[in-house]
Structure formats: C-alpha cells, structure tokens
Structure of Helix-turn-helix transcriptional regulator:
Amino acid sequence: MHTASSEHAVELGRRLVDLLDRRNTLASTRAAEIDAIARSIDRAVHALDDAASSAELMRRACERVAELCSADKVVISRLDGDRIVPLASFSADPDTTPALPAEFDLPAGSPEEHALETNAVAVGSHVRAELREALGVNGFTVVPVVVDGIAAALLHVGTSLDGAGRHALEVFAEVLGGCFERVGLESRRDRQDALLREGVQRWTGDTDFDAVTVGSPDLASAGTEQDDADRRLLDPLTEREADVVRLILTGASNSTIAAELVITVDTVKSHVKHILRKLGATNRAELIAKYQSTTR
C-alpha cells in the first residue's frame, strides 16, 4: 500500500476492511456454532443421568444422538468378538418402527473396523444390507463406545457428519461409555453382593442363614455385621480390587472374574497379587480365612 497510488491504496484499504469484516463474521458464526453444539451435548448428557438400566440407557442414547446429530435414524450395537449385534434403534418418523437389524460380521476394511482401530468417528458411504432399513442408504457415521477401556459397543448414525458433528458425537460416545460403566457397576455390585453371601454361607457351612426371615431383627443384625466385615476387609483396596475380592470370596476362578469384570485374566492375576500383599495373605485360602475371622 505504501508504494501504490492514492487511488489504488484506497481500493486496497477497502478490500482489507472487507476481509477483516468477513473474518470477524466467520469467527462470530463459529463461536455461535460451538456454543450451540456445547449446549446440545449438555442436554444430551443430562438425558442419560438417571437411566436405571442398560436397556433404558440405550434407548435414550439413540434418541439423544438423533437430536444431537440432526439424524433421522440411529442404531446401537454391542460387540461380540468380531460380530456386531444390534440392540436398539431409533427412527424420527413416528409412523415407522424399523425392525432391529440382524447381527453381522465386522467387515474387513470397513468404517466400523477403522472406528474400532482408531477409537474415533468414521464415515461410510456404503450401508450394509443388514442396516439399510434401520439407517437408510445415503451414508452413515459410526463411533465406538468405550467401556472400562474396551470398545464394547458401536453407534451407527444415519447421516454423514462434518467435523463439528463428528466431534460432538465423539464427546457424547465418551460420556455414554462412562454411563454404561456406572450402570454396569451398580448391577454388578448387586450380583456380587448376592454371590458374596452365598459364598460365605458355603465356606462357613452356615445352614441357618436361609431360615432367617426377610426383615427380621436377626437378618438386619447379620446384614450390619456383614457390612462391617466387608468394610474392614476392603478398606485398603482400590474399587476394582474390592470387586475382585468380592468374587474371590464366592470361589470364582480367575477366568470367571475376568469375564464378570470385563478385563483380561492377566489383569485379574495382577489384581490378586496386589490384594494378597495389601491384606497380608499368602494365597486365596488364607484370604478367605481372614474374611471368615472378621465375620465371627
């Protein structure tokens, strides 16, 4: 501009002002889009908070993903090895209730495989025959749902999302994985508590337990003593180690514990080693004996 003629300099100045105005407009628009996405994610996440079961959580997740991604159709599936098993679907059309898709093998080189390998959103243009009725035929987006560090489910959305939409879906899937873990832990603890009492009964030979009626003072007292014993035993442990101990006390094997907690057998062995060291026991039998001594 310093070397331009006065007339040319004025024109360059106008162009510069125009570019600055466009940049500011784009920045404002982008900020508004980000704010809208953040509020949409917040609404979607709040809808998951009080889901009491995995089935309810999946139903709500499909509905909220459809709203979040402005999509008409959504399918959520669990992973069974290399099999994709659809569990719930959603259609924005109130007059349409698509049949749940049939399960199918994880296709090699597919967007699903890419999503699982990268733990990120992937977009596909060719919808598999099993999913066409539930998703449509005009492309789709898929993202894994990670539970306790393992991809446990897939969300299929019946539209091809752009960058902002993909990011919103990734954030939602991450939160959904945490919700599944919470619901799973709650139901797992209920099962473990029942198994724990059965295991203690078996190890101690307490045949009078079944004869105690529900709601009786004896049962209430026994429950309190049991809880106190649990706390004394489990206090030094992490939450996951406590889960492992509860299953050990039922007589569960390492493979059974691994399947119940959705972790590897090697991870179970590592937990058991730490548990024995923390509780001062040399083996499982001694650990069980220590527990029995706290209940007497």
Q: What stands out?
A: The CA atoms of residues 6 and 151 lie 65 Å apart. Confidence is low (pLDDT under 50) at residues 206-223. The chain is about 60% helix and 15% strand.
